[in-house]
């Protein structure tokens, strides 16, 4: 039997082996795959006292050089054997995929797709920064001064470190914090319990590519440690459910990433052509195993809801659980089997309450929940809800699930509620103007684009540059 | 027979002798304690003739701590002490009516014995001490001062009211709890910046907080005597290596008003920073009992609930189940009787226990 891998704490890039360890096990057979060093809150607090000096090391490197480092890191991330601990074997890309799949439940195909997404962020970092900084010259990050559209600008750092409390649902989520390094801001990461692999591999790739180790803090930790990161870093990103994020609501230093509740709405002008862009609906529901906050969990149409829901159910009903290594696998294993049971029971209770029908269940004739090879899966589920107020109508679950509703176009905007990504399939200019003005919508896709599609020059869930840098009014000092 | 086996046997014999003496004392008409004299009739055995060794203490039922909240103190005054005013000590962070223990000289004896475990290098005789922790009605305050005095030293005090902290945390008034912590630390910093202090008593959290404000060795501290809340091996290592910068002697302790003070085994580093405490036997004994059956002692290195028996002329309390769990540890050369390892609140594995700063 092979020894479990040790995943260390990283303190300014230095590995630290804690006496407090958590075991990372395979949800399939309970094997211990890794022993994860846990950082106590005091240790994190102590390290944060040194963060200013550590930030200075990173800030000594020009942004242009950091972009080159990112490019090299992308290549290393995809191909190199990178260390996990200082001792012990290095981890190649195939080992990374196998372990990531084993602990997070994602099939290998989706792990590799997410790997490519991370690589794209490394490669496209310049374009990403251009999007975040609205085309401003990157030297503004280096010097604090510059000119933009003929106007003199001055920016300063709002923090010496970006804290990030990460989830376990999808490796692609790391793309949100990665630009912080290129923006010369050290990161303080608390990985998701089942997914330490990706943030650690990103860090190791950046370090191997020449990014100073002082920029990296990696703290598997408990609730107290997470709170220390959130409160101790000048700026932080918190991923979690509503219960987790509620405690920090209203704190401008903390950017909350709760449930996405992404949606698709269709206008009166285009609904009759729904078969033309039907694939967009399917992709929005099933991409990435339906696990992302950018998967559509609600589709609202002005008419044809029954037909659309029926066609969606028909399209997804053939997606069945397969072994993680199967190249055709599209569904993820639930790392926590109890969570699958809870979701299954919640949907059943919603159906039994009336006002909603599970069309996939009727077509498939087999239960939603399935155990295969010791793993728990949930099969894709399309629910036709009669009302937006139904408990299943605006609910997000960690698998391909969506509700289809019918509502007049005029009432859709009020019905949305918080929406991370909204795909609006319409050409109605008046309605588009209303959608653009909505405070409920974070990212707006105008036209038949899957909710899961990301364009890297557009900010996702807040603008990281504006979060990490503030503009200062300036007069004089033209020689700077 | 190895030296350790011989020492263990001798320690057990001393404990048996002491048990017989203390039971005779508390159950005799001349010296006995009213509470125990009354209880004797309902025990179903004659303690004076039938309790002949430590193992026989198992015949007593578990001690009902509630009587320390409800019965008049006079019930616990041994006749031998009749008419002598006593001190009243209360248990730590309890809210509501606390358990109270009365006493005369016990705390002095306990802490004088404990003093023998301290080194003169870390706790130099004559050097000043600072206690930052619960004073008020707790035994600890007088005991620490007596310990300092016993070593030729004097002690400064900064109070912390753990009952208030518990209320703040239970009421989710975290800002107030932080402000109170800051208030306590401010006072400690003021003392350390203006007086020459060589030894410190505090809780792990306050120690860490204090180190955020100043360097503990830099402030002249040579020994830290620390207790009150759980210390996992990682916490202990962190305190020793980073908070105390590897330069200050760290003396973790486990104790309360009902027991006295348990010392720790010196082999902290060799034991991977897993702390083992040793009861001040024979004046108190600790047993690690099965979670399901308090009559059964668990095997070595297994977890169980801590049972305390206090055996002094002032106070007899057999088989009190503490609100703590621990690993049962084997006897060692310095302490040839069972120890309790990695003590933590009972049920800590299954639920998050609020310990506050105490």
Describe the fold and architecture.
The complex is a heterodimer of chains A (480) and B (358). Chain A folds into two domains: 5-258, Aldehyde Dehydrogenase, Chain A, domain 1; 262-446, Aldehyde Dehydrogenase, Chain A, domain 2. Chain A has 480 residues and is of the alpha/beta class. In chain A, 35% of the residues lie in helices and 21% in strands. The mean pLDDT of chain A is 93. In chain A, helix 3 (63-79) packs across helix 9 and helix 12 (278-286) crosses helix 13. In chain A, strands 3-2-10-9-8-11-12 form a seven-stranded mixed beta sheet, with helices on both faces. A seven-stranded mixed beta sheet of chain A has the order 15-18-19-14-13-20-21, with helices on both faces. Chain A starts with a strand and ends in a 9-residue tail after the last strand. Chain A has 18 helices and 22 strands. Chain B has 358 residues and is of the alpha/beta class. Chain B has a domain at 3-81. In chain B, 32% of the residues lie in helices and 23% in strands. Chain B has helices at 3-27, 34-43, 47-50, 67-70, 106-115, 139-150, 162-170, 174-194, 204-213, 233-243, and strands spanning 87-90, 100-103, 128-133, 155-159, 197-202, 223-227, 249-256, 260-264, 276-278, 284-289, 303-311, 316-329, 339-345. In chain B, strands 4-3-5-6-7-8-9-13-12-11-10 form an eleven-stranded mixed beta sheet, with helices on both faces. In chain B, helix 9 links the parallel strand 5 and strand 6 (223-227). In chain B, helix 5 crosses helix 6. Chain B is globular and about 60 Å long. Residues 352-358 of chain B have low confidence and may be disordered. Chain A binds chain B through residues 18-20, 38, 40, 42-43, 45-46, 49, 223, and chain B through 208, 212, 232-235, 237-238, 242-243, 272-273, 352.
Indicate the proportion of strand residues of chain B: 15-25%
Counted by DSSP, the helix tally of chain A is: 18
- Architecture of the largest domain in chain A, CATH level 2? 3-Layer(aba) Sandwich
Mean pLDDT of chain B: 93
Question: Separation of termini of chain A?
Answer: 62 Å
Strand numbers in spatial order across the main sheet of chain B:
4-3-5-6-7-8-9-13-12-11-10
Class derived from helix and strand content of chain B: alpha/beta
Q: Compute the CA-based radius of gyration of chain A.
A: 23 Å
Low-confidence stretches of chain B: 352-358
CATH superfamily of the largest domain in chain A: Aldehyde Dehydrogenase, Chain A, domain 1
From the helix content, strand content and strand pairing of chain A, which structural class follows? alpha/beta
**Portion of residues in helices of chain B?**
25-40%
For this structure, the quaternary state is: heterodimer
Largest sheet composition of chain A: 7 strands, mixed
Q: Record the strand order, biggest sheet of chain A.
A: 3-2-10-9-8-11-12
CATH topology of the largest domain in chain A: Aldehyde Dehydrogenase, Chain A, domain 1
Shape of chain B: globular
């Amino acid at each position: 039997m092979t020894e479990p891998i040790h995943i260390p704490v990283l303190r300014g890039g230095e590995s630290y082996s804690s006496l407090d360890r958590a075991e990372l096990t395979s949800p399939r057979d309970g094997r211990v795959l890794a022993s994860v060093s846990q950082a106590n809150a005091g240790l994190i607090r102590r390290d944060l006292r040194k963060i200013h000096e550590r930030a200075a090391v990173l800030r000594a490197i020009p942004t242009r050089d950091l972009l080159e480092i990112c490019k090299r890191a992308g290549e290393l991330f995809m191909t190199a054997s990178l260390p996990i601990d200082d001792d012990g074997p290095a981890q190649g890309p195939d080992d990374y995929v196998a372990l990531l799949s084993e602990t997070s439940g994602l099939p290998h195909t989706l792990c590799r797709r997410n790997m490519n997404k991370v690589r794209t962020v490394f490669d496209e970092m310049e374009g990403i920064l251009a999007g975040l900084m609205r085309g401003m010259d990157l030297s503004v990050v280096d010097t604090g001064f510059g000119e933009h559209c003929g106007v003199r600008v001055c920016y300063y750092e709002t923090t010496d470190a970006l804290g990030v409390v990460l989830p376990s649902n999808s490796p692609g989520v790391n793309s949100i914090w990665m630009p912080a390094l290129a923006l010369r801001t050290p990161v303080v990461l608390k990985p998701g319990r089942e997914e330490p692999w990706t943030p650690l591999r990103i860090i190791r790739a950046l370090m191997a590519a020449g990014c100073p180790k002082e920029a990296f803090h990696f703290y598997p930790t408990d609730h107290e440690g997470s709170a220390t990161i959130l409160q101790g870093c000048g700026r932080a990103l918190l991923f979690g459910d509503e219960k987790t994020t509620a405690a920090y609501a209203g704190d401008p230093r903390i950017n909350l990433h709760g449930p996405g509740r992404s949606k698709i709405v269709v206008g009166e002008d285009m609904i009759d052509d729904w078969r033309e862009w039907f694939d967009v609906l399917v992709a929005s529901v099933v991409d990435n195993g339906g696990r992302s906050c950018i998967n559509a969990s609600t589709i609202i149409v002005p008419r044809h809801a029954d037909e659309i829901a029926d066609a969606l159910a028909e399209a997804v009903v053939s997606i069945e659980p397969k072994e993680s290594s199967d190249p055709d696998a599209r569904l993820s294993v639930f790392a926590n089997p109890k969570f699958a049971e809870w979701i299954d029971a919640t949907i059943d209770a919603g159906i039994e309450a009336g006002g909603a029908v599970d069309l996939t269940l009727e077509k498939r004739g087999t239960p939603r929940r399935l155990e295969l090879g010791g793993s728990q899966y949930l099969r894709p589920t399309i629910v036709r809800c009669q009302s937006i107020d139904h408990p299943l109508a605006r609910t997000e679950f960690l698998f391909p699930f969506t509700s289809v509703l019918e509502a007049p176009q005029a009432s859709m905007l009020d019905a949305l509620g918080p929406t991370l990504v909204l795909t609006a399939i319409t050409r109605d200019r008046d309605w588009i103007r209303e959608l653009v003005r909505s405070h409920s919508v974070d990212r707006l896709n105008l036209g038949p684009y899957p909710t899961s599609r990301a364009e890297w020059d557009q900010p996702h869930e807040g603008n990281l540059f504006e979060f990490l840098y503030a503009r200062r009014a300036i007069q004089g000092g033209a020689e700077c | 027979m190895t030296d350790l086996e011989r020492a263990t046997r001798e320690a057990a014999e001393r404990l048996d002798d002491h048990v017989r003496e203390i039971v005779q004392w508390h159950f005799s008409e001349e010296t006995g304690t009213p509470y125990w004299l009354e209880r004797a009739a309902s025990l179903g055995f004659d303690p004076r003739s039938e309790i002949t060794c430590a193992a026989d203490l198992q015949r007593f039922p578990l001690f009902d701590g509630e009587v320390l909240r409800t019965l008049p103190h006079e019930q616990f005054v041994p006749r031998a002490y009749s008419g002598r005013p006593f001190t009243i000590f209360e248990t730590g962070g309890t809210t509501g009516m606390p358990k109270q223990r009365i006493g005369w000289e016990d705390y002095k004896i306990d802490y004088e014995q404990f003093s023998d475990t301290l080194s003169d290098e870390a706790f130099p005789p004559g050097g000043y001490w600072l206690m930052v922790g619960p004073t008020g009605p707790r035994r600890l305050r007088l005991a620490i001062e007596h310990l300092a005095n016993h070593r030729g030293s004097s002690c400064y005090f900064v109070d912390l009211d753990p009952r208030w902290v518990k209320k703040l945390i239970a009421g989710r008034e975290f800002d107030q709890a932080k402000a109170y912590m800051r208030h306590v630390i401010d006072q400690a910093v003021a003392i350390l910046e203006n007086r020459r202090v060589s030894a410190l008593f505090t809780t792990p959290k306050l120690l860490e907080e204090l180190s955020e404000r100043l360097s503990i060795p830099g402030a002249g501290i040579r020994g830290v005597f620390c207790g009150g809340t759980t210390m996992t091996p990682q916490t202990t290592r962190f305190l020793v290596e980073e908070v105390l910068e590897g330069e200050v002697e760290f003396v973790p302790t486990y104790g309360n008003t009902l027991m006295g003070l348990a010392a720790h085994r010196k082999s902290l580093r060799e034991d991977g920073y897993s702390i083992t405490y040793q009861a001040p036997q024979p004046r108190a004994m600790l047993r690690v009992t099965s979670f399901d059956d308090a009559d059964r002692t668990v095997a070595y290195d297994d977890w169980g609930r801590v049972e305390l028996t206090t055996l002094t002329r002032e106070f007899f309390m057999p088989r009190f189940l503490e609100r703590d769990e621990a690993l049962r540890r084997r006897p060692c050369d310095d302490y040839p009787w069972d120890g309790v390892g990695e003590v933590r609140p009972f049920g800590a594995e299954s639920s998050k226990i609020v310990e506050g700063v105490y």
